[in-house]
Amino acid sequence: MLWTVAHSGSFDSPRASVAPLITDGDFAAIASDLDVWDAWPIQHPDGNPVDVGGGAVLWMALGAPHFSDPDLRHGHARIHLLQHYRGTWTNLGPTMPDGFSPGSREWSGSAVLEAQTGELTLYFTATGRRGEALLTFEQRLFRARATLSLAGQAQLENWRDLAEIAVRDPAHYMASDYGTGTIGTIKAYRDPAFFRDPQDGSRHLLFAASAAHSRSGYNGVVGLATATDEALDSWQVLPPIVSADRLNNELERPHAIYHAGLYYLFWSTQRHVFNPAGPTGPTGLYGMVADRLRGDWRPLNGTGLVFRNPDEAPAQAYSWLVMPDLAVTSFVDDWGSAVSKSGRNFGATFAPMLSLVLDGDTVRLVDAGTKNTA
To answer: What are the backbone dihedrals phi and psi of residue 121, each rounded to the nearest 5 degrees, phi first?
Structure first.
């Protein structure tokens, strides 16, 4: 499915929502020495977050020490294990042991728990190569397994079965190290998001990628890989299911949910990665809907825009993740009123939770003027 200018128009759809303004009372840091951003809960195979007891939920998030320039965090990112319990976040430390990951840093993914066995599978992006002298932007999709222990403080033990999966098919996907290292021009082969199709039980990974053989520098796509064995060791890489070729460079953290008999595909993107030839959309959550996972996909709200940040703070939050109960999480990015602040104000923690209403091809925020900080 090609996401085109005809679909996107001017992005002035009256059906798209505006997220409420985030203020300094709406969020709190996870820890004084840790910035966090892209996050995902440990989930059951059906996508629902795992309750590890008494309402406690384990999450993973990209984390790094604080830098005066927030963009530097991407070169130091590691996946951290977090616990959310009764409104409080606890940092449980790096998810994988030192020296286990094959990259120079770790970028986004997803995590699935088999509750009966306690076996957790982490799908993640290994960026660069461990030990490289200069950071590169090569991205590879990896899988690793561990055992969840709930004896005392939750922890993941016995890391094993590290393997590269869904290796890039050059017929469909550009090499991720093709672009420059400049923010907004980096090419993608990252962000694996697990999805089990409730219609037939098939298992898939959606991921952010860049179209091969494109003549445009704006060639973001949503890729798809399908498991070909019950052990989830073998994955067939398929052609992209959505392409923004000539429109947008990055369809980040794509993921799917199944709701009321329809498949909903969501991704995040930023204003500065749209083709300046236009139309240029706002930083926000975008998506499509279809009757089956492989399409044909129809842009939500006519343009694909689900909701955007408010005009007063156009970059206040990012990296939205829609869960099966339609709750939406994200992180606080450059927050606060543009009139009242100077310079960049990186929040580096979880943003207030939002919630969606889905009605066929239309979607909106629930009570867009309110916030849920639970």
So the answer is: -115, 125
Task: Give the three-class secondary structure for 134.
Answer: coil
How many CA atoms within 13 Å lie on the side-chain side of 245? 16
Q: How many CB atoms lie within 10 A of CB 357?
A: 12
pLDDT in tens, 347-358: 999 999 999 999
Instruction: Read off the CATH number of the domain in which 108 is found.
Output: 2.115.10.20
Asked if residue 25 belongs to a domain, the reply is yes
Please name which of 27, 3, 16, 10 lies closest in space to residue 336, comparing C-alpha atoms.
Answer: 27
> What span, in angstroms and rounded, lies between the C-alpha atoms of 335 and 343?
11
- Spacing of C-alpha 335 from chain mean position: 19
> What's the domain count of the chain?
1
| Residue listed under structure tokens 């929040």 | 347
Residue 108: is its pLDDT beyond 90?
yes
pLDDT at site 2: 83
Q: Cα–Cα distance between 299 and 191 in angstroms, integer?
A: 21
Residue 274: closest CA among 313, 304, 311, 310: 304
Domain range for 278 is 5-365
Q: Which residues pair with 144 in a beta bridge?
A: 122
Domain-embedded: residue 370 = no
